[in-house]
Amino acid sequence: MAKTKRIIITILLRLLAFGATLSATVVMVTSHESAKVMNIKFSAKFSNSPTFKFYVTAEAIATGYGLIVLFLSSRRSVDRLIVILDVVIALILTSSISAALAVAQIGKKGDSHAGWLPVCNQVPKFCDHVTGALIAGFVAAIAYLVLNLYSLHVFLTPLFPV
Amino acid sequence: MAKTKRIIITILLRLLAFGATLSATVVMVTSHESAKVMNIKFSAKFSNSPTFKFYVTAEAIATGYGLIVLFLSSRRSVDRLIVILDVVIALILTSSISAALAVAQIGKKGDSHAGWLPVCNQVPKFCDHVTGALIAGFVAAIAYLVLNLYSLHVFLTPLFPV
């Protein structure tokens, strides 16, 4: 009974994380906007920024991993590997979202000390896409965090009886 | 015998991580440089950027945690908590270093699409400090990654006999 509950919680968290990483990837990849400022035309897209490229790569890797694990999770033989890979994926997701958030923050607020102006007024749709992708990525990162804490709790409890 | 080896490896990794996070905190906090560009005086310091403030906070938390755990690690009763907290600290460190790296990359290379100019030519010493702090933080993050993979491996192996 406890085992069935554990499997259901795990699968729900994995489905949530899979949906979130997939959305984050799609929303970030489709972000594109052209704008004209003082007669200079420029286009904003994710591939202009190495950080956003890393974000898309990380979310895509997590999406692929999430899909594979959904099919494998019933096999006990790979359980240990999955616990370890879950931690690695959580680290990759955390890394990518933190980096993208830092850049997005400069895009929105600018950095007056460094002389970097905010760009979201010029390309509001692009910024909306990025915000959406970041929210989805954040949900995925939280899902993996909960998943990790939960599986560590489940696996470690029998080792350390109170 | 195997247990002694495990304890020694763990303590060495923790000492390395502790030294690295401490250096990262100190080097980042002491980064400060004033420059004059076109008669406008400006000063670069870590507290100008929310991302670098987050970096210092995260490294300081990891330093404090590292110190406490070095004293506690001999008590078996807190082993499970430490395994879980190690994962959390690794996530915090990864997050802070990724964010700081993304901002530092813009500081060094700029972002021509967004019209953000590189600032490292104006404040080279500040950039050197940030680079040093990032390298130290990177060492700490790797130490925690290895520590996590190692303790997951050690604790999970008896649960999943081949």
TrEMBL record, chains A, B:
Q: Which domain of life is it from?
A: Eukaryota
Membrane: is it a keyword of this entry? yes
Give the transmembrane region(s): 52-72, 84-107, 133-156
Subcellular location(s) per record: Cell membrane
Any one annotated GO CC term: plasma membrane
> What is the membrane topology noted in the UniProt record heading this document?
Multi-pass membrane protein
Q: Where the protein is mainly located, per its record?
A: membrane
| UniProt keyword Cell membrane present | yes
Any Pfam family the entry gives: CASP_dom
* InterPro entries per record: CASP/CASPL (IPR006459), CASP_dom (IPR006702), CASPL (IPR044173)
Q: State the UniProt keywords alphabetically.
A: Cell membrane, Membrane, Signal, Transmembrane, Transmembrane helix
Q: Which residues form the signal peptide?
A: 1-23
Casparian strip membrane protein domain mapped to chain residues: 6-143
How does this polypeptide assemble, per the annotation? Homodimer and heterodimers.
Give the protein family: Belongs to the Casparian strip membrane proteins (CASP) family.
Q: What is this protein called?
A: CASP-like protein
